[in-house]
């Protein structure tokens, strides 16, 4: 509607501005009618006609003198209002502007071919690239007439190309019906929905799909296709480009298209000579849900139209090279990459990578780099353009290149090495290049004499490699050895060389020339961004071995561990690591510069080194002082002793050499203290100002103004729906303050909550406070007697313990212990708030919901370390659980239910609402049991006891449906002694999956015969002993219907045996209605015997089971022996059958006690909730001699493991039959 109002306003403005002479104002209304009847976006025109009519009635549209001007005004107005440049109003005084032309399909074939020849051009370019230019898209009617000729004359010549350039830069016209043909040639045979076209005049929508069959072959999906576009590409050609782009079937190269329409009509406005060009149809892509109209098709690769063809050729050149490039990279990785275990995964990954979006060499290089590094996680493995600089490796001289003249050798040493002794006996050594190890050996006497001897006795040594451009790595182990003790040997690093397939370990070298510097004195290595190759390795190893402090700039990150190879088919090289460097910690060094312990500008590094040397002189005393403070004050003495030992060891091992100032020392000490103790509360920190220590002071009674502030700031209360109280306080105040303001607190806070049915205490934002008020606060939630032990505090300063108890006398009333209490926590809940929460959890007085708490301390002492600006915070108290006597974990309080803190309140409300329903659920469950449980002697008693359990608080802590199901099922089974009485919960989204009995469809006799053969297993053993196994009892009605088949395929096989084994070990029960039928076969026809009495509680009826008089087939009779095999899996109807034959003495039972199922059960919904209870509704009335089998199972005559029962039965029957003979 906003568009319409704007349109009317624009038209009124322009017509007013230009009014001079009479023109019918109805012209605007007629234009509106044309748009309403034809414009392809009718939803943008709602209300336009009415708005214009109202404007006319108000006389707001005046007349305009000149027709051309009016046309321009109307064009500007309608385009601006509807944001559609395709809407154009024109004036034609001569009348009709349309010329009638013969439809293309009506032209003769030769004329059609001539026309197509002028609008279609093809050729085969270098590299077997097809080129097809189409300036007009022909429609279905023309294709049907000349399609075969076009396929033969043009398409068949293009089919053999490796890729195709489809040039639509000059395509401005076409037929919509031709879209599906063009697109289909580039797709597979399965139809794809590619466009939906809405036509307003007919108010119809048509879907366009690709065709399943075509004239000629398809270009297929694997060949590259590039579509060229320009700002002149319009209409049908735009649609084709848009579809192919979003099907990811073509790359669009060129300019953004015109943004035209599939169908534009030039329509007369009323009876005037004005016309308006209107898009009457619009495309809606099913792929994107959007349209290319107005905005045009945006190219994948933007370029000028006249350069698009050359750009397309370049793109195809790169894309055609991809297989060759991938193969070249594959061969290089297979032959050289040092991580041989990663090569198969890398090769598989790059071979299956999608390269379809590549449009340049840069894209290909970027894609390969991303894929290689994401899989290998190795930054050394990299591809670069050939013109990018990469490391040139020059051969370093060896000993063979040196002269033998001693004077020349001495002069060489004097030139390479610079040595000095600084103040305070600090040695300084600079050398700017690493030589081959053989060179150092040959120069050994001169180096020891002129370089090493002057510095070997210094207190500390500065090694300056800021200007060291590196060299071969062979001398690194030799140099490292001088900075370690002679024994024991120290492992330095391992190198794996892929070129030689050798792994070499490097350790300290024995028999060094000269005296080693050893491992105890300080070494300081100066670096810069110029430090490279072997110099970097030396700095890295001295740092990782904890043998030196590195000071200066991050090094260059250039290693001699890689080789570069030209990649065939592309202007790029790949740098592949051929050496793996594994340090003494087992870590792979993957390059990247060495990060100094102290990062400063290279020119400031020497000065910084001197500062660090002086600082290091004080470190040991600071570490020792920290250990002493821990031994004196830390609340857990045995842990503090361990900490002292660990700190001493780490100092001796040089692990504090990376510390360069007080801040880094504080960080390292904190890390070591926490790691050793497992206590995150230990903290060392640096401060220029001595921290304020709060001494115990007598509490000041607040003034009335302060009292109001305390209550309003600390306490927030609310009575929520359902009479649920809410109390939030964000700090634990001192007990003396609480006592002082007690009456006001009781009146203004506590009494508001006292009569609620349950209470939520929100501790999520309570981060600190005093623990002295905890006993008082806890006491309000317990009875006065007995006094409850909350927890015990051990204080290191006194080495004494203090039990914390509830208080027998408090101000105001207590909150009934029978009422539910919830405590909300977050990761910020700390200190005294944690102690309160943990005590209430330990004593099972509250349900804690939220996040684990911070794990703070009740009391922390802050101590200065050796008169420095370092301080250590040490917990000097620990809390012991009143339940276990063990120290409370420093990891915080673990809630009963862990959720995000911001979700805790909503979860509490859900639990509260759920708990309010528990009473009703239990009452309904009890009623269902009383009315339906087969054992009516105890059903009413179960119901009564269940309610009694609830009233005694047994269900008070239930917080979820699963907890209620478990608790309720256990209670029902404990009260009844029947495991078949159980409860289940079905969430709303799973109710449809609750199993129900489905009507059984009787199959054909042929199918049933096969089913019987599969379901029943028979055999005849030695001494003519029959065997029958079936694993489920069927309905009597079904048995009767298929009795002839059962007799024929089962019963006749065993009827003439001398004895029979019935195997019910795997029988899962089934219908009880078939029991009487089957049992009757084991009695004589003239014997009518009552088998059992079945009582049904819901119907309150007792049904007698008798043997049947008439049966299909012969009876087995009463004289032949029958043995029944049972197991703990035998259940339900099978147990009833076993029970009957055992009771009447017709069978010997061998095996295991049966499962103790039930005759039949029924599942009831509990009062419209999502809870269901399964209740045994029928029972056997048992025998005079003892109880029935439900819930306890049938005990066999002879107990035997189920796996051995068959053999035992054979043994018994064979012995019995042998005795008869």
Automatic annotation (TrEMBL):
One of its GO terms (cellular component) is interphotoreceptor matrix. InterPro entries: ClpP/crotonase-like_dom_sf, Tail-specific_protease. SMART domains: TSPc (SM00245). CDD domains: Peptidase_S41_IRBP (cd07563). GO terms for molecular function: serine-type peptidase activity. Residues 108-304, 405-601, 703-900, 1004-1201 form the Tail specific protease domain. Residues 1-19 form the signal peptide. One of its GO terms (biological process) is proteolysis. Keywords: Extracellular matrix, Glycoprotein, Repeat, Secreted, Signal. It is found in: Secreted, Extracellular space, Extracellular matrix, Interphotoreceptor matrix. Its main location: secreted. This is Retinol-binding protein 3. It comes from Erpetoichthys calabaricus (Rope fish).
């Amino acid at each position: 509607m906003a568009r319409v109002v704007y349109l009317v306003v624009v038209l009124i403005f322009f017509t007013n501005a230009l009014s001079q002479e009479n023109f019918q104002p109805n012209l605007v209304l007629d234009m509106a009618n044309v748009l309403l009847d034809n414009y392809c976006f009718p939803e943008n025109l709602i209300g336009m006609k009415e708005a214009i009519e109202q404007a006319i009635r108000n006389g707001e549209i005046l007349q305009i003198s000149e027709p051309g001007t009016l046309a321009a005004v109307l064009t500007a107005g309608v385009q601006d209002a509807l944001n559609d440049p395709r809407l154009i109003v024109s004036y034609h005084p001569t009348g009709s502007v349309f010329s009638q032309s013969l439809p293309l399909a009506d032209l003769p074939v030769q004329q059609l071919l001539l026309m197509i020849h002028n609008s279609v051009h093809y050729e085969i370019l270098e590299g077997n690239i097809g080129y097809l230019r189409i300036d007009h898209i022909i429609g279905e009617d023309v294709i049907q007439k000349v399609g075969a000729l076009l396929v033969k004359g043009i398409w068949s010549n293009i089919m053999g190309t490796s890729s195709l350039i489809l040039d639509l830069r000059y395509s401005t016209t076409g037929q919509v019906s031709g879209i599906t043909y063009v697109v289909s040639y580039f797709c597979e045979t399965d139809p794809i929905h590619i466009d939906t076209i809405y036509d307003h005049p007919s108010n119809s929508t048509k879907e366009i799909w690709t065709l399943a069959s075509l004239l000629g072959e398809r270009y297929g999906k694997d060949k590259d296709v590039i579509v060229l576009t320009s700002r002149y590409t319009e209409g049908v050609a735009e649609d084709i480009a848009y579809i192919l782009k979003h099907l990811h079937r073509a790359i669009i190269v060129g300019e953004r298209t015109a943004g035209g329409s599939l169908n534009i009509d030039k329509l007369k406005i009323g009876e005037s000579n004005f016309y308006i060009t209107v898009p009457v149809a619009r495309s809606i892509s099913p792929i994107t849900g959007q349209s290319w109209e107005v905005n045009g098709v945006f190219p994948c690769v933007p370029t000028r139209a006249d350069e698009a063809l050359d750009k397309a050729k370049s793109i195809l050149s790169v894309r055609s090279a991809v297989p060759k490039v991938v193969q070249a990279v594959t061969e290089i990785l297979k032959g050289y990459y040092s991580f041989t275990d990663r090569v198969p995964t890398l090769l598989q990954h790059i071979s299956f990578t999608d390269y379809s979006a590549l449009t340049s060499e840069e894209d290909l290089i970027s894609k390969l780099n991303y894929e290689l590094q994401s899989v290998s996680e190795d930054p050394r493995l990299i591809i670069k353009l050939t013109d990018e600089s990469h490391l040139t490796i020059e051969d370093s001289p060896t000993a063979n290149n040196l002269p033998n003249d001693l004077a020349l050798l001495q002069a060489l040493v004097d030139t390479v090495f610079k040595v000095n002794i600084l103040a305070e006996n600090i040695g300084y050594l600079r050398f700017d290049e690493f030589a081959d190890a053989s060179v150092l050996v040959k120069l050994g006497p001169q180096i020891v004499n002129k370089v090493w001897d002057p510095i070997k006795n210094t207190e500390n040594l500065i090694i300056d490699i800021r200007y060291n451009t590196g060299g071969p790595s062979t001398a690194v182990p030799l140099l490292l050895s001088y900075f370690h003790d002679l024994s024991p040997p120290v492992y330095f690093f391992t190198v794996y060389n892929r070129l030689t397939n050798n792994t070499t370990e490097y350790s300290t070298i024995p028999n060094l020339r000269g005296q080693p510097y050893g491992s105890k004195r300080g070494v300081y290595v100066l670096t810069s961004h110029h430090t490279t190759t072997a110099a970097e390795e030396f700095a890295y190893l001295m740092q990782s071995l904890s043998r030196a402090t590195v000071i200066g700039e991050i090094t260059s990150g250039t290693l001699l561990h890689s080789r570069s190879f030209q990649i065939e088919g592309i202007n790029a090289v790949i740098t592949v690591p051929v050496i793996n460097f594994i340090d003494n910690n087992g870590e792979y060094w993957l390059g990247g510069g060495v990060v100094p312990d102290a990062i400063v500008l290279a020119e400031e590094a020497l000065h910084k080194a001197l500062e660090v040397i002086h600082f290091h002189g004080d470190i040991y005393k600071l570490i020792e002082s920290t250990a002493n403070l821990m031994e004196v004050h830390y609340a857990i003495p045995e842990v503090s002793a361990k900490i002292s030992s660990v700190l001493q060891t780490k100092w001796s091992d040089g692990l504090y050499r990376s510390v360069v100032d007080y801040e880094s020392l504080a960080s390292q000490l904190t890390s070591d203290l926490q790691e050793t103790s497992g206590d995150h509360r230990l903290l060392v920190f640096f401060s220029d100002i001595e921290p304020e220590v709060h001494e115990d002071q007598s509490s000041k009674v607040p003034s009335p103004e302060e009292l109001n502030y305390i209550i309003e700031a600390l306490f927030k209360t609310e009575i929520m729906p359902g009479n649920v109280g809410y109390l939030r306080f964000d700090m634990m105040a001192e007990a003396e303050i609480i006592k002082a303001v007690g009456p006001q607190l009781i009146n203004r806070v506590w009494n508001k909550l006292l009569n609620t049915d349950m209470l939520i205490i929100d501790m999520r934002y309570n981060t600190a406070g005093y623990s002295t008020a905890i006993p008082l606060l806890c006491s309000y939630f317990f009875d006065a007697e007995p006094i409850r032990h909350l927890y015990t505090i051990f204080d290191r300063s006194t080495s004494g313990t203090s039990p914390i108890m509830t208080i027998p006398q408090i101000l105001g009333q207590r909150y009934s212990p029978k009422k539910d209490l919830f405590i909300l926590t977050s990761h910020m809940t700390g200190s005294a708030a944690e102690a309160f929460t943990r005590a209430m959890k330990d004593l099972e007085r509250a349900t804690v919901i939220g996040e684990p708490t911070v794990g703070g301390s009740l009391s922390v002492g802050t101590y200065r370390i050796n008169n420095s600006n370092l301080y250590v915070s040490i917990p000097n108290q620990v809390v012991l659980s009143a339940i276990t006597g063990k120290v409370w974990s420093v990891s915080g309080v673990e809630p009963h239910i862990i959720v995000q803190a911001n979700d805790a309140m909503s979860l509490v409300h859900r639990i509260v609402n759920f708990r309010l329903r528990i009473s009703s659920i239990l009452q309904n469950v009890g009623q269902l049991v009383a009315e339906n449980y087969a054992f009516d002697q105890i059903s009413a008693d179960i119901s009564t006891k269940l309610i009694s359990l609830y009233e005694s608080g047994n269900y008070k802590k239930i917080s979820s449906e699963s907890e209620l199901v478990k608790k309720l099922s256990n209670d029902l089974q404990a009260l009844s002694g029947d495991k078949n009485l159980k409860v289940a919960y079905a969430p709303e989204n799973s109710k449809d999956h609750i199993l129900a009995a489905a009507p059984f469809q009787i199959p054909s006799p042929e199918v049933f015969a096969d089913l019987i053969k599969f379901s029943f297993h028979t055999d005849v053993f030695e001494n003519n002993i029959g065997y029958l196994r079936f694993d489920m009892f069927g309905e009597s009605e079904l048995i009767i219907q298929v009795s002839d088949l059962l007799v024929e395929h089962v019963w006749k096989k065993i009827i003439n045996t001398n004895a029979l084994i019935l195997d019910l070990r795997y029988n899962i029960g089934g219908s009880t209605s078939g029991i009487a039928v089957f049992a009757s076969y084991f009695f004589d026809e003239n014997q009518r015997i009552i088998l059992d009495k079945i009582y049904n509680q819901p119907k309150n009826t007792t049904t007698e089971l008798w043997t049947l008089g008439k049966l299909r087939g012969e009876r087995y009779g009463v004289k032949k022996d029958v043995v029944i095999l049972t197991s703990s899996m035998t259940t339900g109807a099978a147990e009833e059958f076993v029970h009957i034959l055992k009771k009447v003495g017709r069978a010997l039972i061998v095996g295991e006690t049966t499962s103790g199922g039930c005759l039949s059960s029924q599942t009831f919904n509990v009062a419209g909730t999502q809870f269901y209870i399964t209740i045994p509704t029928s029972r056997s009335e048992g025998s005079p001699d003892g109880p029935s089998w439900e819930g306890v199972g049938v005990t066999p005559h002879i107990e035997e493991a189920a796996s051995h029962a068959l053999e035992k039965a054979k043994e018994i029957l064979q012995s019995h039959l042998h005795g008869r003979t």
